[in-house]
From TrEMBL, chain A:
GO CC field: ATP-binding cassette (ABC) transporter complex
Residues spanning the membrane: 46-67, 73-91, 148-169, 193-213, 225-250
MF-aspect GO terms: phospholipid transporter activity
A Pfam family it matches: MlaE
Domain of life: Bacteria
Alphabetic keyword roster: Membrane, Transmembrane, Transmembrane helix
Name the record gives this protein: ABC transporter permease
From TrEMBL, chain B:
PROSITE patterns to which the protein is assigned, alphabetical: ABC_TRANSPORTER_2
Signal peptide positions (record): none
UniProt entry keywords in alphabetical sequence: ATP-binding, Nucleotide-binding, Transport
Protein name: ABC transporter ATP-binding protein
PANTHER family: PROTEIN TRIGALACTOSYLDIACYLGLYCEROL 3, CHLOROPLASTIC
Domain of life: Bacteria
A GO MF label: ATP binding
Gene3D superfamilies registered for this protein in UniProt: P-loop containing nucleotide triphosphate hydrolases
UniProt organism field: Puia dinghuensis
Residue span(s) of domain ABC transporter: 32-269
Length: 254, 283
């Protein structure tokens, strides 16, 4: 009974701590000095350095989706609807989710490990005693970078996934790129694109802030760096699913 | 070097431990004054009513076994740890009365050298030194910043390592760069957390001599946390020994070395190098 209660207490303590950490971001992000140089560097690491992985995943995802869907659609004589189906499912759901989950693994773990390592080796303390606000320099810059870059990566994933779908479509059928995209876009509405873009900003925010939170609060010891990286991935992935569920409910009302 | 303080009669009984801060008799205002500092972690009381002062230009060495609360004490001075009770005044500022911005303004005037130097490992040596300047000396020209970086690296004899990453440096070099980075903001007070830990005897002696050299050059007051007697021998104007969270003894190196208390003397017995080191610096 005691360990069970202790686990509950720890969970609520961490949840409260994380909430305070997330709110602190909004207080600090508007405070000067703005670390533009560090923000651009983090945008480069989060955005540019992820394009290959994101692009490859998006391409495979679009192609596989088309290949797997085609037999069922062909059975209904609805092959011409494949571009629209691919476009809607990729833009509304699969593109943002796959991008976010890959970023949880790639970026969330990197931030957890990096900040965890800085905590263990007292680099964060060194900033603090040098009168440099480590939250402002480390957490704000990284979270701003993920919040801005993940929507862009999502748009990239969507585009490449549609291109992958187009190539896969041409395995059995013949269609032009222009026709495939025109047919796909014809099925997309404002309520498909807008909520998807908005939720990807939230995905970016939680991936950044949770990755930073886990690293920033790593305890002393090398083991904690691994724990920070691991728990950053788990917690941010879970947060992405929860946000997606809430977004789906809200979109449903539109 | 000031060696006028008398050794406090040591006692392990907290109830009768004097713990009374003795301010300088000449009326000179001390740069650091600590009164009744107490810090616990859970049930474990690490520091019990510590009181001490550091005079301007003085090197105070805090000795003690591992786990005696030395590092916790020094971290309380820069608010990396918060004491349970007691007051700390540094450079005339009472830490309890300062808000976040005022604390940071004071921190700029205090240098802190971490046990492992805590260099930013993603930055080169130049970037490590430039980082505090970029944050706090925004109006300083790039040329002046570069000159200051080179001066600090010259002080520690590592100008050639300017473009290297910390991972490429030896333990002694990392400590020297850490010292250079700390000194670049020209602090009035320096706090050293075990500056010679993990170094060989020769390098430890070099670092200790560097600390004294920097103290003389920039007229810095310092607190040096250590359990390295060579470092203590070279750097100390005055020594305080912590035991079980209290100030167990206080005095000059020579006074403590000749103490009647066997436990105090045990700090000084094991190393034959100390006399050599002391002779080298004339202490």
């Amino acid at each position: 009974m005691q360990p069970f209660l202790h686990r509950y207490q720890t969970f609520f303590h961490q949840a409260g701590d994380l909430t305070a950490f997330m709110l602190r971001f909004f207080r600090e992000v508007v405070k000067p000095p703005f670390e533009w140089r560090e923000i651009f560097y983090q945008c480069y690491l989060v955005g540019y350095k992820s394009t290959l992985l994101i692009g490859l995943t998006g391409f495979i995802m679009g192609a596989v989706l088309t290949i797997q869907t085609r037999p069922s659609m062909a059975g209904f004589g609805a092959v011409s609807l494949i571009p629209g189906m691919i476009a809607v499912s990729v833009v509304r759901e699969i593109g943002p989710m796959i991008t976010a989950l890959i970023c949880c693994g790639k970026i969330g773990s990197r931030m957890g490990a990096e900040l965890g390592s800085m905590r263990v080796t007292e680099q964060i303390d060194a900033m603090e005693v040098s009168a440099i606000n480590p939250f402002h320099f480390l957490v704000v810059t990284r979270t701003v970078a993920t919040t801005l870059m993940i929507p862009l990566l999502t748009i990239l994933t969507d585009g490449i996934a549609l291109f992958g779908g187009y190539l896969a479509m041409n395995i059995h059928d013949v269609t032009s790129l222009r026709h495939f995209f025109t047919a796909g876009m014809a099925h997309l509405d404002f309520v498909d694109i807008f909520p998807a873009v908005i939720k990807s900003f939230f995905f970016g925010y939680v991936i950044g802030i949770i990755g930073c939170y886990k690293g920033y609060h790593a305890s002393r010891g090398t083991e904690s760096v691994g724990i920070a990286a691991n728990s950053a991935v788990v917690a941010s992935s879970l947060a992405v699913f929860i946000i997606d569920m809430i977004a789906a409910q809200i979109t449903d009302l539109l | 070097m000031d060696q006028t303080n008398n050794t406090i009669s040591p006692t392990t009984d907290r109830a009768v431990q004097p713990q009374v801060e003795k301010l300088p008799a000449n009326g000179q205002q001390p740069v650091i004054v600590v009164r009744g500092l107490t810090k616990s972690f859970g049930e474990h009381e690490v520091l019990h009513s510590i009181s001490l002062h550091v005079k301007k230009g003085e090197n105070l060495v805090v000795l003690g076994k591992s786990g005696s609360g030395k590092s916790v004490f020094i971290k309380c001075l820069v608010r990396l740890e918060w004491p349970d009770c007691g007051t700390i005044s540094i450079l005339g500022k009472d830490l309890d009365s300062l808000n976040y911005q005022e604390t940071n303004d004071l921190r700029i005037r205090i240098g802190f050298l971490f046990q492992n130097a805590a260099l930013y490992d993603s930055m080169t040596v130049r970037e490590n030194l430039a980082f505090p300047l970029r944050q706090h000396k925004k109006r300083m020209s790039a040329k002046k910043k570069e000159a200051l970086i080179l001066e600090m690296l010259d002080n520690v004899g590592l100008v050639d390592s300017i473009d290297q990453l910390p991972s490429k440096l030896s333990g002694g070099q990392v400590k020297r760069i850490g010292l250079a980075r700390t000194l670049i903001l020209q602090p009035e007070v320096m706090l050293y957390d075990e500056p010679t830990t993990g170094l060989d005897t020769i390098t430890a002696k070099e670092i200790s001599e560097l600390i004294v050299k920097m103290q003389k050059k920039y007229h810095i007051s310092s607190i040096i946390i250590t359990h390295d007697m060579i470092c203590a021998g070279i750097t100390a104007d005055r020594i305080i020994i912590l035991r079980d969270g209290i100030v167990y003894a206080e005095g000059s190196y020579a006074q403590l070395e000749n103490s009647q208390d066997e436990w105090i003397r045990s700090f000084f017995d094991f190393s034959d190098n100390i006399n050599t080191a002391q002779n080298a610096t004339g202490k």
